[in-house]
Amino acid sequence: MKSEELYNYQGNPVYEYTMRNDELEIRALNYGASVTMIQAKNKNGVKENVVVAYDDIESYFTQPGPYLNAMVGPTAGRIAYGKYMLDGKEHTLSLNSPPNHLHGGATGISKQFFHAEELKDGDKQILRFTLDVDHSKDGYSGTYTYQIDYILEGNTFTIKSLCAPQNKGIANLTSHMYFNLSGDLKDSINGHELKIPSSKKTKVDKDNYPGAIVDIDKNSAFDFLNYKTILQNFAKGDEEFEITRGYDTAFLLNEGNTITLHDKESGRLMNVTTDQKSVVVYSANYFDSQLIINENKKGYPFCSIALETQDIPNGINIVGDEGRVFDTQHPYKQITTYEFSIK
């Protein structure tokens, strides 16, 4: 492992950390724990970057969206109208994505500087990010303590997250990595095959938040029980796409919760396993030419796909607070692993 100071933002040094072995090379910043590179082999053994990354470090600070490859919390996704009930009392969060609260607000961890520590455990390389941050400005219950481990072992990249509110509060973390398995953004994700073990999803409300849980109709645009290319399903159309422009969908995971993404051209296959209840699939719907990424390429919708493993977004308003409230004695925990191979 190695670290390098690349930039200084308002007196804060920005470091990029590198973990590598024969299979993968992973780079990440101390700002937002943002991943800037995952080099993975294609079918010819050539390593290429399979995540979207800004061409310059400054863009991580100046671009208002799209949470590029950052960790997101204390809650991922939208909280409807920034309100929820806890212990019989209504709590109000900031409306940073009117009329909703999104991704933790202004104090969210995607916009924070973490302390980073490089560790080893046998063949495992561990990059540990820690942070204490007061989220009360956004309406949360005060200070939250975070420990997020990026773990490289063989052909797997594991994210192990822990979050402990000092006072009783809600939490739901995710990684907002954007993948494109073609390598170095050579092609769109339209031809990528996606498989999700899910027969239920949340329905997107007209105000663009996850609402009621509904069944996924067989052979609909949201049916990924068997391999479907992303374009093949999206072309079927759905009224929700008029709101979201593409996939921005929480899929509830069945037993055997492995999500698979495959690019036939490169041969790269990625299995995502998680202990979480859902995955939000987002197809970069609002990417545009203002985003300069991956060696001077311009962003565009469906240039990449985020697979955001998490609890059901807005779940506290959909199915209640059971298992969604945490404190120092009962911290939030998540483990998600990305396994890369060739098919």
TrEMBL record:
Residue stretches spanning the membrane: none
Enzyme class: isomerase
Enzyme Commission number, as recorded: 5.1.3.3
Isomerase as UniProt keyword: yes
Keywords annotated in UniProt: Isomerase
MF term (GO), any: aldose 1-epimerase activity
InterPro entries cross-referenced by the UniProt entry: Aldose_1/G6P_1-epimerase, Gal_mutarotase_sf_dom, GH-type_carb-bd
Keyword hit for Isomerase: yes
SUPFAM superfamilies in UniProt: Galactose mutarotase-like
Superkingdom of origin: Bacteria
PANTHER family in alphabetical order: ALDOSE-1-EPIMERASE (PTHR10091), GALACTOSE MUTAROTASE (PTHR10091:SF0)
The protein's name in its UniProt record: Aldose 1-epimerase
